[in-house]
Every structure is written in structure tokens, then in C-alpha cells.
Amino acid sequence: MNFNIGTLDIIIIIAYLVGIVLLGVFAIKKKMSEQSSDDYFLASRSLKWGVIGAALFAANISTIHLIGFAESGFKHGLVDGLFEWLAIPFLVFLGFFIAPYFFRTRISTIPEWYERRFNGASRTWMVLFAILTALLIHIGISLYAGAELAKQFFGLQEIYGIIFIAVLTGIYTVVGGLKAVAITESVQTVLLIGGAMTLTIFGIFALPDAGIHSFAEFKAQLAPDTLSILRPENSPANPPEGGISWYAALLGYFVLGAWYWFSDQTIVQRALGAKTEYDAKVGPMFTAILKILPVLFFLLPGVLAYVIFKSDIGADTKNTLPFMIDRLVPIGLKGLIIAALLAALMSSVAAAINSASTLFSIDIIKRIKPQTDDKKLVLIGRYTAVVIMILAIAWSTQADKFGDTIIHTVNSLGAMIAPPIVAVFMFGMFWKRGTAKAANITFAVGLVMGIFVFLLDFPYENLLPGLKGLAEKIAASNGINLLPQTKAITGSLGMVFMMQAWWKFVLCALIMIVASLLTAKPTEAQISTCIRLKDYWPDKYNGVKDFRIIGLAIIISLTVLWIILESIA
Question: pTM value?
């Protein structure tokens, strides 16, 4: 596909890129040499709820979602909206209990809590998991998606697009730390949502030109259940290899949601930088409100593209979003939309770089050499950010070999990483009997199991040579005709990644429980770190500003909206 981009659009994009980098650099009032580790890694604990909420949303929503959801909407309808709307109850719970708990403990990183609850080895395991998450998902896949965008609009080879975006993002992240990241994320959230809304509106206005003049005519162009999020397993809107049924969505997202929103350093770090406990509580709830939008403005454009441009896009579905921008958006505004895509990419990458540098400096260097002063910690953090970025660039060039939509590739990586983390977190936070030895065994078994399952579930043609024989045996035992694109677990066994996440979590939970009961009880100091939910539920209400009123209103609004959507789907 050949896309056109005018001189005015290029000027707008360049102006945006220069402006956002300068904003990030000048967001900090202190010189680089004067920044303490609290300044650099936690924004001096000065973030208000609005900035926290917008930064959480921007760190979560990246080019992965904009490009990936458009592709997913084109191919499968609104089903992947479950990753957005099921996140909302988790964000409310994060605001009710988890974020204020972390705020009161005054920890600097999530792995620090694991050391307090278990031991130093558990903290090291969490650092490993967190850096893997930042490297593989938040940075690597984001750069891959951004490179696809740069290739389509600017004709850049993928590697040059990756390096270009990585360098720009790295400048203000390495210099400014969390405060620079949070402030630029807040600005980019506005641009991101505005760009997505604009594209959706243009898509709706283009329907009459495609002969669509009513909602009934629009639905008639779609397979049944295309506009549904919670579907039966045999829904005609599901892909041939099997879709995400309603029970797989609920069970699998419990694992992915608890991992991502409660214990992912990249995400929770924004709440750790809160100015007050109220900011820590309400910030995630503001994010919960924003999470309603992606279904309407990120996934729906893909469905609109299916109706309007089905024959034009054809099998090249990764270009759904660039194609819509090129065909629907006028010159000038096109530059703003592309800038929104770059905004999303830079936000996600910046957030992950900062969290990875925080983890290495605070959780590894500070532990090995407690006497390391603040200036040196910040300097090490900057060097770490550069190294992580280089590694992510290398990984991003291999991301397309998983052979799935971008959204499913990301969540398959999550299904690899999440189960042991959630098992240890849940039984550490809410069960006093959980032990350090059990946690470390669960981490080790879970990581090995997760990597093995992920590598085995590549398409047969992209499998490592040593795994092809096993994939052939699995296919033969299940009567499956093995094709180049067949996946051993998703295809031959019929187990989608959401159910893979659930069953791996169940196994990790059993390991955690049994190993805890077979090892010595935790110390009183370790038990004291377990959360007491009633400590975070005040007796008095504070009117409409009370965090519980806000959370309840969000859940009711989500329920009503979901019922309306499913009723018309």
C-alpha cells in the first residue's frame, strides 16, 4: 500500500516531536546534577490525581493498542474490548486498597515490597520479571508497532524507524526521569484521545458513501456478535482457530489484570509518586473512566474499516489504521493523527524505560552497595535506560514471528509472565501463611513453564527446531492437520492464551500453597506486611468526592453501558 503525506503534515509532526521532547526536558526544575533519586524515580512524590490518572492511561495505551485494536476490530469486532472494560474493576480496586497501601508503606518499587513480605531472593525474581515485561512488551512490541507506522507513512525501513523513535523518547526520559515522563504523558493523553475520536467521527461520516445509512444496514454487513464483547465459544464472529469465550475472558483476565494493575512496576510506579493518599486513590479511578473510551474509539474504527474498506485492505490487516488515516483524514489533520500515534508510542516506551532504570538502580545497585549516593544512583539509572532501549530495539525486530494480531501477541507475552507473579502476590498480600521459600519456588517453576509454553505456541513454521517434533506429536494425538501457521497449544490443543494464563495460575497457586504449608511459618515482621482491607475503608464518608462514591459510580456506569452494548450487538 502507498500512503500519501503532505508537507504540512510533516511540519506538524516535526513540531510535535520537537515540542514534546523540549517539554520533557524542561519539565524538571532542577538541573540534572541536582536531582535526587526520589526526584528522578518518583517525581519527588508530587503527582496529583489528574496527572496520575492520565499518566497511567498513557503508559498503558500505546501504538500497540491504536494499531492493534484497529486490526482486531477489522478481523474480530469488539471482542478485544474485554481487555479494556474488564480492567475497570481492577483499577477501582487498585484505588480502593492497593495504591493507598503502597503509598503508606512508602516503597520506591514493587519488588521492594516482595523483599519485605518474603526475602531478598523474591525481590530479585520480581526485578527479573519486571525488566522482562518492560523489555519484551512495553518497549519492544511498541517499537515494532511504531516501526510499522513509520514504514507506511515515511517509507523508513523498520530498523531506522525503531531507532529514530527510540532516540527521541530516550532523550527526555533519560534526562528528566518520572516527572518528565508523567507530564509529557498527560499532554499526550489529550492528543491520543482527540486523534482517536477524530478518526472515528470521520469513519462514521464515510458510511453513507459506502451505502450505509442506518445502524441496521451497518449490522447487516457484519457477522453476528461482531459488536459483542462477551461471546459464546462458538460465536460466528470468532476466528477459525477459536476465539475468547466469556468464561475464558473472565478467568484469564483475572490473571492478566491482577498482574498488570497491581504488580507491574511500569504501571504502579505512577501511584507510588502520588503527592497525597487521596491522589493515590483517585488517580487510578480517573484512569478507569478513560478506559471506557478505547472500545468506542480504538476498536470501533476497525469495524468501520471492515464495512467501508474491506476489499481494499484485504488480508493486509496490520495496515487497517494507516489505511483509514490515509483515506479519511484531510491534509493537516492527518499530521495531528500521526502525531497522536507517535504520542502513544513515546508514552509507553518512556514509562517502561523509567521503570526499568528505577528497578535496576534501587532494587539491585542500592541493595548490593547501600552506600551508593543519590547522584550515582541517578547516573546508573540513565545508563540502564540506554542499555534497556538497545536490547528492546533488538527484540522488536523479531516480534512479527509470533504470527498473530499485535494485541494477542502482547497478551500472550503477558500470559507467559503473569501467572507466578499473581500467585505469589495474592498469597503474599492476603494470606499470612505464604512463605519466602514457596514464593521463590513458584517464581522459578512459573518462569520456566511460561517461557516453554510461549515458545511452543509459535506457528509451526517459526518454531525452534527442537520443539517441532513435540508440536507434531501434539497435533497427531489430537487429529489436527499440521499447517505452517498451526500453533501447538492454541491450535492443536484448542487452548487460547487466556485459558493458558488461567491454568498456569492455578498450577502456580497450588505450588505456592503446598510449598508454604511444607515450610516454616513467616516471621511476624513478614506477616505484618499483609494488607488489612478494613484499614483502608474509613468509617466516615466525604460526600461526592469520597473515593468509594466515585468508584461505585464508575462500576454502575460500566455495567449500564455494557448491558446496552450487548443488547444491541
Answer: 0.85
